[in-house]
Design brief:
Low-confidence stretches: none
Strand content: 25-35%
Mean pLDDT: 86
Helix content: 25-40%
Largest sheet: 5 strands, antiparallel
Oligomer: single chain
């Protein structure tokens, strides 16, 4: 009866040792900084989800990088190629009124 008792205690000691190593590992390894990647289209803002342009229904979006407004037509629940609508002159917002 001594043999199974010793092997059981040895297995439990090994398990406890490995759990202790896992628990203490964050104390000895330096914390790494976490960096997230920006979303692919985080510069695009939806201006209107339901917009009519030249008789077509679609999506109106603003590209915040260059202030271009684009219309994306929707035909049979499929989005088509975007159509350039206008460039919004954001630089005029800083000017004083005349």
């Amino acid at each position: 009866m001594h043999k199974p008792d010793r092997s059981l205690k040895a297995i439990l000691m090994v398990i406890a040792l490995f759990l202790g190593i896992l628990a203490l590992r964050p104390l000895f390894t330096p914390a790494t900084s976490v960096q997230a990647q920006a979303a692919r289209f985080d510069h695009v803002t939806i201006v209107s989800a339901m917009f009519l342009y030249k008789g077509q229904q679609g999506l109106l979006v603003l590209d915040r990088r260059n202030a271009n407004v684009w219309f994306i037509p929707r035909v049979d629940d499929q989005f088509q190629n975007p159509v350039f609508v206008i460039r919004v002159p954001f630089e005029k917002l800083d000017q004083a009124t005349q």
